[in-house]
Specification:
Blueprint lengths: L1 E6 L2 E4 L4 E9 L1 E12 L6 E6 L5 E3 L7 E6 L4 E6 L8 E11 L4 E5 L3 E6 L1
Parallel strand pairs: 2-11
Antiparallel strand pairs: 1-3, 3-8, 4-5, 4-9, 5-6, 7-8, 9-10, 9-11
Amino acid sequence: QVQLVESGGGLVQAGGSLRLSCAASGSIFSINDMGWYRQAPGEQREWVASITSGGSTNYADSVKGRFTISRDNAKNTVYLQMNSLKPEDTAVYFCEVIAITTSRVTKDYWGQGTQVTVSS
C-alpha cells in the first residue's frame, strides 16, 4: 500500500503565499505523475496542476502564473507553491499520485486533503 501525507494548508490574506507538500510512502517501486486538485464547498473537485516523472508541468488556467508545482523524486514528495492567493482559491486541496507498487501494480492514490482559506 501507498500512503500520502499532506501538509502546509492554512489561513492567509489575499495576495499572500502558501506552500503545500505531499509525501508518499509505503510499498513504492516508482512514481509516475503527481498532481494537485481542489474542492471548494458545494463544488466538484477540480484539477489544479500536475507534473510528470520527467518534470513536465501543466496548470489550470485559473492558477497559471501564480502556482508552481514541483517534485523531489528522492523524497517521493510533490509541492505546490501558491502565490498571489485570491479568495476564490479557498478550497480543500488534495494531492494525487500515480504509483507503481513493489507488486508492480499501477494505481492512483489520494491524500487526505488540506484546507486553504484565503481571506479578502
